[in-house]
Design goal:
30% of the residues lie in helices and 19% in strands. By secondary structure, it is of the alpha/beta class. Bound molecules: fe (ii) ion.
Length: 312
């Protein structure tokens, strides 16, 4: 928070590489303080994050594009994220080490495949930023790892499995606290007390009850999510990361809202819950959101329109 303040930056997205066993993630606290978007891989057991990505998809942040690479092994939900010349490897690939594979659905055969077939195939000069390093190093390269990482000097998957199965490491001290805390990180989707009914709408309430004269559905998701999962008919697209400008005086939603109830929705209900608060703070009062987002809507049998990715 201090660094953001000093550099005059706005935190837009926080990406966790996997559910950590050795510390409590800062993701939920950062979201609560900055209203940023939280991102993890689709395999993550975390209860609610704002966006989930699959292998090969990209995370876009104002001209920067991170490629998501699913690298199971350390945990089943581990991802690495690649920019053009660098890769953020979480605990999958460390400096002179690799992530242990003995808990959280870790698997040393999967880890071997992730390391050798997904990471070491990157160009030698690719910079590698691991999630952490106990000696204080922060960056290495794929070439350096290929040559000097002792865990990678093996000639077969069986040899790697043999090493990993015989590490005999104690469990992380914080594991019993950290894992449950890191799985239960979603923002509250319901207001406390009397505001509850006015603030949140369930899929069951909304299906078949959308009154296009009185309601305006707002889709807060990004282009790739809309193309992948479809949209609710008649909804207006207003990406969450630009919400502030839409709800301020003279903003698009401000103008469209006149006399209508705004119903925000997103992928899982986290961005839309944050959006209700932001819209109320900006002075809009007839706003609510769809609990559980498009995922819950689809599961409840709500109709979905596929959009043509070319015309989006
Ligand atoms: Fe880890």
């Amino acid at each position: 928070m201090q660094l953001l303040d000093e550099l005059d930056l706005r935190l837009v997205k926080v990406v966790d590489t996997h559910v950590h066993a050795d510390h409590i993630t800062g993701m939920g606290a950062l979201r609560d303080r900055t209203q940023c978007v939280t991102v993890m891989g689709e395999e993550s057991p975390a209860d609610v994050v704002s966006m989930r990505v699959k292998d090969g998809e990209t995370i876009d942040i104002e001209g920067i594009s991170l490629e998501a690479i699913h690298t199971p092994g350390h945990t089943s939900d581990s991802y690495c994220f690649r920019l053009a010349d660098r890769v953020f490897t979480g605990d999958t690939l460390l400096i002179r080490g690799t992530g242990r594979t003995d808990f959280q659905a870790g698997d040393s055969r999967d880890a071997y495949d992730s390391l050798f077939n997904k990471l070491l195939v990157l160009p030698d000069e690719t910079l590698v930023y691991p999630g952490h390093d106990y000696k204080g190093d922060t960056v290495s390269t794929i070439g350096e790892k290929r040559a000097h990482n002792p865990r990678l000097q093996v000639s077969s998957v069986d040899e790697y499995v043999e090493i990993m199965d015989n590490l005999n490491l104690p469990n992380p001290k914080q594991m019993d606290v950290a894992v449950p805390a890191n799985i239960s990180i979603g923002a509250s989707q319901e207001a406390a007390g009397d505001d509850l009914a006015a603030w949140s709408v369930s899929c069951e309430q909304l299906i078949g009850w959308i009154d296009s004269d009185a309601d305006l559905l707002i889709d807060l998701r990004e282009d790739n999510e809309r193309a992948r999962d479809g949209v609710i008919e008649g909804s207006v697209h207003a990406p969450y990361t630009r919400l502030t400008q839409f709800v301020e005086s003279g903003g698009m939603l401000r103008q469209m809202a006149s006399g209508k109830r705004l119903i925000f929705y997103c992928a899982f209900g986290e961005r839309s819950a944050l959006a209700v608060r932001a819209a109320m703070d900006a002075g809009l009062d007839d706003v609510c959101h769809l609990v559980g987002g498009i995922k819950a809507w689809t599961q409840a049998g709500g109709p979905i329109n596929q959009i043509n990715p070319i015309s989006r």
